[in-house]
C-alpha cells in the first residue's frame, strides 16, 4: 500500500520514503517517527489528528514518553520532505492550535495498492536530480524545533533539564544550540561509520535490565557517570524496549547525548537506536 499526494508525490510507508511521481530519483527518506506521523495524517484525512494520538501511536506504543517539541520536530521533517519532493511552497500540513495537525483541505490524496502504479506526468527538463537527506535545517518554521541528523532506523528524543532560573541571553542560547547540534552530527557521523562507534564504548554494569556502556577520559570519576546514568533512567526510558545504553561522561559539555538501542550492536546490523539528548546537565 502507498499514497499519492497532489498527484505528484508518492509516499511508501514501508520504506519511509517520499518520492516524486514525475522523477523517482528525487526522493526523501524520513525518520521512523516522521513516517508514522505522516501515515496517521493521511489515514485520518480530512480529520484532525490530535497531539495525544500522535504520542500514543508513534511513541508510547514503542515504550517511549517524549515532549511536545519532539512531535513538532517530526512534523517539520515531514513538511520539508513534502516541499522538497513536491517542489512546492504550498501548505500541505495544517497546524490546529492547541489540538494537533491535519492534511490541508486543498491537498488531494489517494491510496493505492502496491500492484497499482502511480500515473507519471511529463517530466520537465531539469538538471540532474539528487536524493534529499532529511532532516536539514533551512528556514525552519517558528514553531518547529531543530531537526537532527540521525542514522537510518533512528528516532530522536530531546529532554531539557529544568533550570533554577530562566536563561534569557540569546547569545548563550544560540551557542548552546550550536553545541548540541555538533554533538548530534558527531554522534550520527560516528554511527554511520561502522561498528567503531560502539566499540569505543566499554561495558560498565547491568542495572534494572539496562546495560550501561560509556567512554570517557574521566570515566574513573564516578560522580559524572552516576549523575548521567541517573538522568537517563529518570527520562522515562523503558529498559525492556531499549536495554543497550551508550553515553559519554564529559564534564564540560552542556548536554548529554546518549544512544539507547533495542539490540546489541554486535548481534545485529540494525540495532534500532534512539538518540536521547538531555540539555543543561552541566549548567551553572
UniProtKB/TrEMBL annotation:
InterPro entries: OmpR/PhoB-type_DNA-bd (IPR001867), Sig_transdc_resp-reg_C-effctor (IPR016032), WH-like_DNA-bd_sf (IPR036388). Residues 3-105 form the OmpR/PhoB-type domain. Coiled coil: none annotated. The keyword Cell membrane does not apply. Keywords: DNA-binding, Membrane, Transmembrane, Transmembrane helix. The chain crosses the membrane at residues 171-189. PROSITE patterns: OMPR_PHOB (PS51755). It comes from the Bacteria. Residues 3-105 bind DNA. One of its GO terms (molecular function) is DNA binding. GO terms for biological process: phosphorelay signal transduction system; regulation of DNA-templated transcription. This is DNA-binding winged helix-turn-helix (WHTH) domain-containing protein.
Amino acid at each position: 500500500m502507498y499514497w499519492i499526494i497532489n498527484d505528484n508525490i508518492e509516499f511508501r510507508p514501508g520504506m519511509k520514503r517520499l518520492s516524486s511521481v514525475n522523477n523517482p530519483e528525487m526522493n526523501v527518506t524520513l525518520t521512523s517517527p516522521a513516517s508514522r506521523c505522516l501515515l496517521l495524517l493521511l489515514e485520518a484525512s480530512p480529520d484532525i489528528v490530535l497531539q495525544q494520538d500522535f504520542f500514543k501511536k508513534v511513541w508510547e506504543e514503542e515504550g517511549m514518553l517524549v515532549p511536545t517539541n519532539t512531535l513538532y520536530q517530526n512534523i517539520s521533517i515531514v513538511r520539508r520532505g513534502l516541499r522538497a519532493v513536491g517542489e512546492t511552497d504550498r501548505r500541505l500540513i495544517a497546524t490546529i492550535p492547541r489540538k494537533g495537525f491535519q492534511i490541508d483541505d486543498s491537498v488531494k490524496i489517494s491510496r493505492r495498492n502496491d500492484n497499482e502504479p502511480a500515473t507519471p506526468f511529463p517530466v520537465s527538463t531539469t538538471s540532474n536530480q539528487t536524493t534529499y537527506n532529511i532532516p536539514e535545517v533551512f528556514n525552519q518554521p517558528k514553531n518547529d524545533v531543530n531537526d537532527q541528523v540521525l542514522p537510518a532506523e533512528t528516532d530522536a528524543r530531546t529532554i531539557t533539564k529544568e533550570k533554577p532560573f530562566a536563561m534569557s541571553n540569546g547569545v548563550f542560547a544560540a551557542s548552546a544550540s550550536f553545541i548540541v547540534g555538533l554533538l548530534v552530527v558527531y554522534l550520527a557521523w560516528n554511527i554511520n561509520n561502522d561498528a567503531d562507534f560502539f566499540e569505543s564504548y566499554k561495558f560498565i554494569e547491568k542495572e534494572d535490565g539496562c546495560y550501561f556502556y560509556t567512554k570517557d577520559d574521566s570515566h574513573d570519576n564516578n560522580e559524572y557517570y552516576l549523575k548521567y546514568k541517573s538522568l537517563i533512567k529518570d527520562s522515562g526510558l523503558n529498559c525492556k524496549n531499549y536495554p543497550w545504553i551508550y553515553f559519554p561522561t564529559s564534564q564540560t559539555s552542556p548536554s548529554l547525548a546518549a544512544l539507547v538501542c533495542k539490540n546489541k550492536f554486535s548481534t545485529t546490523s540494525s540495532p534500532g537506536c534512539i538518540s536521547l539528548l538531555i540539555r543543561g546537565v552541566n549548567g551553572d
